[in-house]
Specification:
It is built from 17 helices and 38 strands. The protein is an alpha+beta fold. The chain has a 25-stranded antiparallel β-sheet that branches. It starts with a strand and ends in a 5-residue tail after the last strand.
Length: about 950
């Protein structure tokens, strides 16, 4: 009998998982068989981190004989890998040591990979340095192998590009130099110390075209995006260089725009080639969501390729295969992906993939795929169909199946059929599984899994709320399920305890020693009482939210609402709202971390400093004020870090993906012209009752009733902030649901049609959108002037930057003294000439007339807060520290270019708002979330 254990641990600064498996005296292998595994991630002080991944098994056939997963049986190299690193959004450094246990298959032996001890990696990226984007990567690796050539490799690859972006397209020239140095040791193959220098240059250019049209009652925009990518890399003879860690990338869509056809640093492919591609996207105008995308591309080679790996043939064609890809979320329930590589010279396809997915509701999924690859000199071809499904059979019972069949070999690659019964407090799964292992052997297994999630009764705790989300069965079924769960748990515990009791009875007994004291006697006879210190209130994927974390957030929000005079909802309602907010935030933070988005300590410090400045407090006083409110300052800083992280993930995942076409800009300009002088701005409050993306009719009806209940409370006269805090799922629910002033161009048509019928103070009926149910209250409305204008500010400044050896505090003190001199009568322009560190110094710091959006946000906020003639305190921006003085202001009519820019920003903001709600709902639905707030 094989036994195994999995131990997971999670702390604020470290997390990991340990795995152990043991099979004593396996009669087939005639040995004890075991597995050990450890994965650990640790957040170290000063921005450093540690990652550890180690696995080891007893023998080469462990996974092939004992695993029930195809992915495990194909493992050949088990890592022993440790990484220590640091960095921020602009640079990164890591030190690594890695070695492997190689599992050999006698029928298909593999080469043992190199040990890399150590490997040092560094990278840097800096945007917009006088218009240039600067980038660089470097590596030092010591390669060790008992049978192959040994040596050290050093790589440095600095690059610079000059992106030119316009609404109609872009052009990005780029150049770099790839330098490599080899120092050879333990060398019997004749490799000498050598170096290689290869210049690399490219130009990437594309255009944007679009047209608007209607389909099925919805407005869409179709884009046409041609793209050219020219790459020039001169030939360098690399046949005398070793191959430590390099292979050629299999050609595909990802290869069309690569700088190097090799992966790894031992070969730099020569190139004089042009990639021509065209993409078309179908974008839903209302939400900005991309419903369909198609791409067609091919590479044209102007010179034969000469660089290759040992034993590999070079490409002789003057053009690559033609690549075509189609992907799309055709409907909320149906998505598809298709791709083909077509060799025009041979008039036949080299590879073809087609996959479709139908998921109308959670727990209902159908997948079908067809994969084809023609035989290649380096690898055999495939021709497979793959079908998988998960579908409810009846209440609580779900069936699962997979059928992966090789049409070429006429045999089953993997087959699976099974069911899962979910009784709320316990689940049972049974699966029959058959698949081919890496050795072409067949593995067949039948597995039964019992999962007990209903706890024993605890007389010291109040009974569970029978209506919590955790239990999804009707009352009768739930009571039966709970009794069944307790019975199963008792039987399961008894089964485990029986052999232990038998062993204890067999063991020799000795009299118990007398207690050492009366105190020890009392401790030994009094039942212990468990005092809860903390508990889990939610599980979000593989992370948890604890009761203490939720309590800190509740305390912070209560203080904020009390200071602002806001209406506090009931305590349980506030807890539920804040936990839902924390769950959504945690999902987004996890997504950001998976995508490599990080916020460095310097950025957090600047954000905290700005808040302190806005409150006219020093950092010491601000920290004391935070802690007087019962909030740990470290928690406040982490919350600030997460807020910045959430903004960045929204920009990356949503706002950068929103496309605004020229046709939409023209439509917005026409709308503004029609509304000029009329009502076009509204101040609103908003309640949103979210509906899950693939909600059942019952869920939709429950959410509709919740929205009607909120509307009923408003009609009774309940204050809007209280209703918002109680019922709304919007991010601003605890801020009274205030949307502020919104231009009509920023409002969805659904909202606009509703509020145009309202008078100030009135509340709309419930409005249904794809995101859920909405209720709007119109507070005020106002019109715009007939001639659109912008307020321009004439300002001047003194800029001082913190240099090496000079702290920000010293620079700030210096500017404060300059401000005192100016207030005392000194000439601002003269001090700017002698102290300012930018090009405006010769003009006395005069910036001229500045329009909104032409300066960085920190500078613009400070400038807008000043009256004419007033001088700001020292403020910090990405450029340094400033003293700002406003000289005068004026209203100027917008130019045509600025009108178009403003219209584009309006349309983008509206579409980004809608797309964010859709993205947030979709992201939340894909995450595993278990709400345990009501559990006691």
């Amino acid at each position: 009998m094989q036994v195994g254990a999995e131990y997971r641990y999670l702390r604020p600064d470290w997390t990991g998982q340990a795995d152990v498996e043991f099979l004593p005296n396996d009669s087939i292998a005639d040995q004890n068989r075991w597995l050990l595994g450890l994965k650990h991630n640790h957040k170290l002080p000063l921005g450093w981190y540690l990652a550890l991944n180690a696995q080891r098994v007893s023998d080469d056939n462990y996974f092939r004989d004992l695993s029930t997963r195809v992915s495990a049986t194909s493992q050949t190299n088990l890592p022993r890998d440790v990484i220590v690193g640091t960095g921020d959004e602009n640079w990164a450094f890591s030190a690594r040591a890695i070695a492997y246990q190689t599992l050999q298959d006698p029928e298909a032996p593999v080469v043992v990979p190199y040990r890399q001890v150590p490997q040092l990696l560094w990278s840097g990226f800096k945007q917009d340095v006088r218009g240039f984007d600067l980038q660089g990567v470097g590596e030092f690796t010591n390669y060790r192998h008992p049978d192959l050539v040994n040596g050290q490799r050093f790589i440095a690859y600095p690059q610079a590009s000059y992106p030119i972006r316009r609404p109609w397209g872009y052009v990005t020239p780029k150049a770099g130099v790839h330098f490599t140095r080899y120092n050879m040791t333990d060398n019997e193959q004749g490799f000498a110390d050598t170096s290689r220098t290869v210049p690399m240059a490219s130009v990437d250019a594309g255009l944007f075209f679009d047209r608007a049209f209607a389909l099925g009652g919805r407005d869409f925009v179709q884009t046409l995006e041609p793209r050219l990518f020219y790459l020039n890399v001169p030939y360098r003879d690399q046949s005398k260089l070793p191959v430590f860690s390099t292979d050629e990338v299999d050609f595909g869509a990802s290869s069309l725009f690569r700088e190097n056809r090799f992966i790894g640093g031992d070969r730099i492919g020569d190139a004089n080639q042009l990639t021509a591609a065209v993409s078309s996207r179908l974008i839903e105008s209302g939400s900005g969501l991309e419903r369909l995308q198609a791409t067609l591309g091919q590479i044209y080679y102007f010179e034969p390729q000469r660089v290759t790996l040992p034993g590999r043939a070079v490409r002789e064609d003057n053009k690559s295969d033609l690549v075509a890809i189609v992907t799309g979320q055709v409907t909320p329930a149906f998505s598809m992906d298709a791709g083909v590589e077509y060799n025009a010279s041979a008039n036949r396809s080299r590879r073809f993939d087609l996959a479709a997915r139908y998921a109308p509701q959670p727990g209902r999924v159908l997948n079908v795929a067809y994969r084809f690859a023609r035989d290649d000199p380096e690898r055999p071809g495939i021709k497979q169909v793959d079908f998988s499904a998960q579908w409810p059979i009846f209440a609580g019972l779900t069936g699962v199946a997979r059928w992966n069949w090789s049409l070429k070999d006429k045999k089953l690659i993997e087959g699976l059929v099974g069911f899962e019964y979910n009784a709320g407090c316990w689940e049972i799964r049974a699966v029959a599984h058959r698949f081919i292992t890496a050795t072409e052997q067949v593995s067949t297994s039948f597995q039964v899994q019992l999962e007990l999630s209903g706890p024993f009764e605890d007389r010291d705790q109040p009974p569970r709320d029978p209506e919590t989300e955790h239990f999804r069965l009707p009352p009768l079924g739930r009571n039966f399920a709970m009794r069944s769960a307790i019975l199963l748990q008792t039987l399961f515990a008894s089964a485990l305890a029986a052999p232990l009791l038998a062993f204890a009875q067999m063991a020799p007994t000795t009299p118990a020693p007398p207690p050492a004291s009366r105190l020890e006697t009392k401790l030994g006879t009094t039942p212990s009482r468990i005092v809860p210190v903390d508990r889990i209130v939610a599980v979000v994927n593989d992370e948890v939210i604890t009761s203490n974390e939720l309590g800190e957030r509740v305390q912070l929000v209560v203080k904020q609402m009390q200071r602002g005079g806001g209406q506090l909802p009931a305590a349980d309602v506030l807890q539920r709202q804040l936990l839902e907010r924390m769950i959504n935030d945690r999902v987004q933070v996890q997504l950001a971390k998976e995508n490599g988005i990080r916020v460095d300590d310097a950025t957090v410090e600047k954000a905290v400093q700005r808040i302190a400045d806005d409150n006219n407090l020093s950092m010491t006083d601000f920290r004391a004020a935070i802690e007087r409110d019962g909030i740990r300052f470290t928690r406040f800083r982490e919350d600030m870090r997460n807020e910045i992280l959430l903004q960045r993930v929204r920009e990356r995942e949503v706002e950068n993906a929103v496309v605004v076409t020229d046709a939409e800009v023209e439509t917005e300009l026409a709308r503004e012209a029609r509304e000029r002088g009329g009502t076009s701005e509204f101040r609103l409050q908003h309640v949103l009752v979210l509906v899950p993306q693939q909600a059942t009719p019952e869920q939709i009806e429950n959410r509709r009733r919740r929205a009607l209940q909120a509307l009923s409370e408003l009609r009774k006269g309940t204050p809007f902030p209280q209703v918002s805090a109680t019922y709304s799922d919007a991010p601003d629910a605890l801020q009274g649901g205030n949307l502020g002033w919104r231009d009509s161009g920023r409002l969805p048509t659904l909202f606009l049609e509703a509020i145009e019928k309202l008078q100030p103070g009135e509340v709309s009926d419930t409005l249904r959108s794809p995101n859920g149910f909405h209720i709007l209250k119109l507070l005020e409305k106002r019109g715009k002037s007939a001639a659109p204008s912008v307020v321009q500010t004439r300002a001047r400044h003194i800029l001082v930057r913190a240099k090496e050896g000079t702290s920000d505090a010293e620079v700030r003190t210096r500017l404060e003294r300059l401000r005192e001199r100016i207030v005392g009568g000194a000439d601002f322009a003269e001090l700017a000439r002698t102290n300012s560190e930018d090009a405006t110094a010769t003009k006395g710091g005069d910036l001229g007339w500045v329009a909104p959006g032409e300066t960085v946000p920190e500078f613009e906020r400070a400038m807008n807060a000043l009256k004419n003639g007033e001088i700001s305190p020292p403020i910090q921006s990405p450029f340094g520290w400033h003293l700002v003085q406003v000289l005068e202001r004026r209203n100027e009519e917008l130019s045509e270019d600025r009108k178009k820019l403003a219209a584009r920003q309006t349309v983008r903001a509206r579409k980004a708002d809608e797309a964010f709600q859709e993205w947030l709902r979709s992201t939340r639905d894909r995450a595993f979330v278990e709400n345990r707030l009501e559990e006691r």
